[in-house]
Amino acid sequence: MAETSTNLQTIKIYTSYWRKYPGTIAGCMLIGPAYALQVIVSPLFIAKALGQLVNHQPINNNYLWYAGLTMLGGAILQYVSDHGFIMRFCNFVTRDLYNVTITHLLRQEYGFFANSFSGSLVAQANRFAKGYEAFSDAVFLESLGLLCGVLVALGVMIYYNPLLGSAVALLWAVSIAIVAYLAIRRMPVRRAAVAKESQQTGELADVISNAVTVKTFAQEAEEERRYDLTNLVRSKYYYRSWGRAVNNAFAINLLCIALQLLVFIGGIMAVRHGTLSIAMFLLFQVYILRVIDSLGKAAMVVRKLEGTLGDTQEMTVLLGRQSQIVDPEHPEPSKIAKGAIALTNVTFGYDLHSKNSPALLKNFNLHIEPGERVGLVGPSGGGKTTLTKLMLRFNDVQDGIITIDGQDIRVIRQDDLHNAISYVPQEPLLFHRSIRENIGYGDTAASEAAIITAAKQAHAHEFISSLPNGYDTLVGERGIKLSGGQRQRIAIARAMIKKAPILVLDEATSALDSESEIYIQDGLWKLMQGKTALVIAHRLSTIQKMDRIVVLDNGRITETGTHKQLVAKKRLYARLWTHQSGGFLEE
Ligand code: ADP
Ligand code: MG
Predict the structure, then answer these.
(1) What is the DSSP letter of 509?
(2) Biggest alpha carbon distance in the chain?
(3) Distance CA 258, CA 268 (A)
(4) Pocket test for ligand 1, best of 116, 362, 386, 398 (most atoms within 8 A of CB)
(5) Ligand with minimal distance to 109 CA
(6) Over the stretch 429-439, which tens digit does the pLDDT of each residue have?
């Protein structure tokens, strides 16, 4: 049932574009008369001439003219229809649909992407846009023309021999119903096969993106074995699906034979009784070929529609998915100026639905003054990254409130919030675009000089300049062609170029050697001037000079104070410090 409503939804989305291009759609519809004129009406004139020939009458030349003109007229209409259909209509709508999918996907919240395979999403989006062509093809090219032709043919047959014509019409209608029924019965089987295929695609994308890991652990054979298991399941489902298709094709063949025999035997009897002329008998034989053609086509159309609808189902469901994090209906104008951040009584857990998973943060409080620079440290898994994601509204708090400059972050637009925060994530990813574009992403209007300055401050200019293509170097998917440290430096430059009052760095320098880090420190320090900064670091030297250091352990603040105060407290921070400074004197 859910599937039916999803299919209807897909049809609704697809057909909504018909209204958008009314002119071209009218052109497409010409396929009906075009087909009827060419293959049904023109043979009628030929049969008329043939009738005169058989009866040894003089042939009326007009019939031949009519036959030629209807063929030519049909061809011209078909040309107009093809023009409207293939060149414009499909093309325009397909473009629209590609755009609709990216728009919708990009509006989904952070958690959605954390839980989806990107390869599978890409495949779904493509199938959805491509599916339109198959859908319209089935509706216009395959159905409309043939249906129009068959109806005219049946009309002509009924006109010339009501009894035989009606019998053919009846058997045809029943056959179409049977064909449709069989094809529809196959739908769930085929859909299950598509779902398995989608799963396989996702798995392949996952393995391919982890190819380097596979290699390092010499797991090629194991991954192949695993993949083959999924592949086998997919293949079994497809086997079943095609099995049904083959059976259906056989049933259709039987129906075609019945229709042909009806017209053949019925026709001969009618000729014997003098209710059908020889010429019309021959015409009926020609028509019945078109009529049985429609059965095979009907099966194909249903299969195509069903295939398309099955293919597009996942995307249609996604298009109906509302992002878990949405802008308020009437967003307030953002008041973020200085960046006073306050988390008050915040409770948050990733999976609060399941009873036995306790909240990660419970009645959590952290207030950061405007312009204050706060360092955040603590054991991994303590909730540091989660905290930054809550500030960015990548997740919403389940209880409590987060305000920036006194304004609840849920009352402003997410774009305004994100524009106000310069963020370097723990594992920065880069676009497969040039380094210049990757850095400039922080401010699309940035000049070349500004990009280079940022790169210099992030201590990235040197290595970029040493690359053969310099700032034009393409970094590979997700930035794979760069080292972790290089990626981080570009991400820092990208954040530096962004003009935002708040800076959030999540272990932004973790992959750098101490020397590079010291260089970057200068740049970062300059960047923090006049900004509110939250810097998560693993290496304590990074945050030593911060106005305040907060120790987060297991979702709780266990210590807070300046470096000196915390060292004096001789608790977790002091222990970590002694460890890390390894016997070196504190400054
Ligand atoms: P830290 O940055 O301090 O190392 P995180 O905030 O990344 O810690 O993680 C805190 C806890 O939340 C961890 O136990 C982690 O497994 C869990 N966690 C992080 N992200 C997700 C997620 N998207 N879904 C479910 N659990 C998550
Ligand atoms: Mg983290």
Answers:
(1) T
(2) 122
(3) 15
(4) 386
(5) 1
(6) 899 899 999 99
